[in-house]
Amino acid sequence: MIIKIQNGEDRVIRLCPVTVAEPDIHDPSSDARRLVTVLETATGLNGIAVDLGVLKILQKTLRQGQWRVTAALNGARVVALYAGEKTDIYGVAFDIGAGMIEAVLCNLTDGKNIARTRMINPLVRFGADPVNRIASGMNKPSDIPVMRDALRHALDQLCVELANLATIEPNEIADAIFVADPVCHHLLLDLDPVELGGAPFTEAISEPLEVKASELGIKIAPDAFVYALPLIAHHVGSDLSAAAYHCAMAGKSEPTLLIDIGTTTEILLSANGKILAASPPAGATLEGTGIEAGRHIVEGAIDHIRIDAATFEPRFHVIGVEAWSDDSGFAQQSDAVQLGGLCRAGLIDALAELRLCGLLGRDGALKSEMASSTKRLREEYRSYSYMIREFEPRIAMTQHDIRALQMAKAAVQAAARILMKQLGVTELACVILTSGTGPAIDPLRAGVIGLFPDCDAARLSFVENAAFEGAKAALISRSARAAIADLAKRIKAVETVLDPDFAMEQIGATGLPHARLAFPKIGAALDIPDNEDRAAERRGGRRGR
Hints:
By secondary structure, this protein is α/β, with parallel strands linked by helices. The chain is built from 14 helices and 23 strands. The chain has helices at residues 31-43, 52-64, 130-139, 143-166, 182-188, 238-246, 330-334, 344-356, 399-422, 443-448, 466-476, 478-490, 502-509, 520-523; strands at 13-19, 49-50, 68-74, 77-83, 90-96, 100-107, 113-120, 173-180, 209-212, 225-228, 256-261, 266-271, 274-278, 302-307, 314-318, 377-380, 383-389, 395-398, 430-435, 460-464, 491-493, 538-539, 542-543. The strands form 6 sheets. Strands 7-6-5-8-10-9 form a 6-stranded mixed sheet, with helices on both faces. A hairpin with a 5-residue loop joins β6 and β7. α6 packs across α11 and α6 crosses α12.
């Protein structure tokens, strides 16, 4: 993606080449004073500041450039100084996900992406999600500084890797920005995360914050800053703020639901001039955690699957392989990757396809009576499993895995219904799905399993890594930073599990797509078996919860 820069004034970092007057025995001015004087004249700014990091290299750089230098300015602060004339300067945007950290190097002059890389979040050894990590820190306080240092070291290493990929020096990176969940945000900034471990989940700060990269152990330009985008609240992080900006949620005129699927899934509803957000208790299941066939987004993972409704035979696509499993060249191509498991897009596809072909009931139970119709349905673990791949490596959708996915997606749909209730919304006009970098999630099949309430299939869309795209915009543009800050102030976080109707909504949402409600709009696009309204069960004359 190329970010369009409207004008030079909107840039966070600007380059200013100047010629500094040489020192004179008759003029007692310091090198710093003469640099500031010529910069103020060239830029029209007053009160330009030079901090200690640049001061340490100032005299050597001036003489190396024979008094011709290029200053990198962040507002009225000199964050870097280079000998001679320089036309390109760089910045890094980080998306600190619970499971993966992604980083992109951008040219801050023209907005172009230069290099991209990622790594597993080193905090996974303290827990798969933020809740487990904060619990680890509360149970063993000495883990908190260890987590902080591990996260800081990871970002520093990513900067080095990006610089190597782009064949530049790390000191040419003059700015950085990040989005993260509140726990990673606090750990990185060395803020005590303990209060996030219990209600009311209060952050030390949710507003935007700018700190020196050197304070975080990130060795880039001498006085470069790292900008923390604003958090929302209640474990809803700055990733959702950035995603909401990228998807233009502030300007939606009709009820629009945004779902950011990840290790921690977050949702946002914009309707009637208001914006609500929540972090449903879905856990990391949709990312494959705790699922036998679950796998990270790596080469060899299944990202798409289709099941024939007549033969019940599967065909699937694997990351890193062009052919599908039933194509003639698949066996040869798949030898080059480590085949096995389904990533998040594949898990959603598999659940939807089992439902569409009739092997999976509306209640989420694999139909034992269908075992005589296909060898793919096999009895094991005192229940049934659908065998996607029978020989090594075995890939199967077990009944246990299906139940776990049901509970996770039910939490998301239930939370969406609570937000709809609070905003007086009865129907969704649009649904936008997003997630980290990786294969696109099929929004229609996400609708089949009931990840969200019914919506017109033509109004469903998927946006790859909206949080990352929002962060990249803010890396370059001051107006983007201001817009995200304003948007975050408008968003109200809701603890949906405290709503008295949440438990009832979650029980109903365990159905595929819902236990009682039909999904006629999704059903108009794909034929879902047993997709009719059902009367709510009664117990002693009262509605069962």
